Hints:
Elements: H1 3-18, H2 24-35, H3 48-54, H4 62-76, H5 80-85, H6 88-106, H7 134-149, H8 153-186, E1 196-200, E2 207-213, E3 217-224, E4 235-238, H9 249-257, E5 262-267, E6 270-275, E7 287-294, E8 297-305, H10 312-323
Antiparallel strand pairs: 1-2, 2-3, 3-4, 5-6, 6-7, 7-8
Helix pairs in contact: 1-2, 1-6, 1-7, 1-8, 2-6, 4-6, 7-8
Amino acid sequence: xxxxxxxxxxxxxxxxxxxxxxxxxxxxxxxxxxxxxxxxxxxxxxxxxxxxxxxxxxxxxxxxxxxxxxxxxxxxxxxxxxxxxxxxxxxxxxxxxxxxxxxxxxxxxxxxxxxxxxxxxxxxxxxxxxxxxxxxxxxxxxxxxxxxxxxxxxxxxxxxxxxxxxxxxxxxxxxxxxxxxxxxxxxxxxxxxxxxxxxxxxxxxxxxxxxxxxxxxxxxxxxxxxxxxxxxxxxxxxxxxxxxxxxxxxxxxxxxxxxxxxxxxxxxxxxxxxxxxxxxxxxxxxxxxxxxxxxxxxxxxxxxxxxxxxxxxxxxxxxxxxxxxxxxxxxxxx
Length: 334
């Protein structure tokens, strides 16, 4: 999720745990703890692809954050004033929850979060909420502001967490309803049983994107809870296949990062791989040039991000129209 959301989530969690000891300093500390795991964006892993793949890695791991919480709590208790007023168990609970709620929330997005690093397991990707969703964030912002100026600070934080958590539960329920809708429509077709991904479209949980993988094609459609009928109008796109000589280690790394939802294109002398999970049809934010064709053969290159230009002022009105039930809007929104 975005940094503002993680900050107010951390502040609300800290305030809720602090109870009567909640004050402005506690809220500020919680906000800082809530954003701490994302400091990994300042680590340069050497290439654009490595930076993308390794984000939400060790700094989001429960196996790292829990011991770190224990260490940080012990160090904070070295302050005599804190030690007098804050029992270790309560301080550890505040620090640990403010930290681990960050990656737990991230795991509900589509990017993927390595909750169990360093174990060799795929990233956790529930994909029920977009990375920016005001319906989740605004209740937390209101709660933190309320807590700042109210005498009932912990109560305000707990109400904010209750409302935002209820909305998060709704996104999971909504996703499952759309999955049922998609699977019902695809039953007894050539797409039945194919890999399926259902994700929310930007900034909302009413309009959903359904992505179905074929061998060298993929199908994409959108479904809104405000549609007059539940029929999803899928559009078929060319997925492509990597050249036999272009199966480089970087491609395997990217395929694992994208959970297999990858398309392949040849652009001039360059081989491009695109993560289909994020964005919408033909407007995906994570695409990389991984190889070039030179002297009759493919040669691996240092991965380079493919520039992407999206006219947000044009896309958002069409996204709004589609969310309200206009099924003439194609899934690409171009």
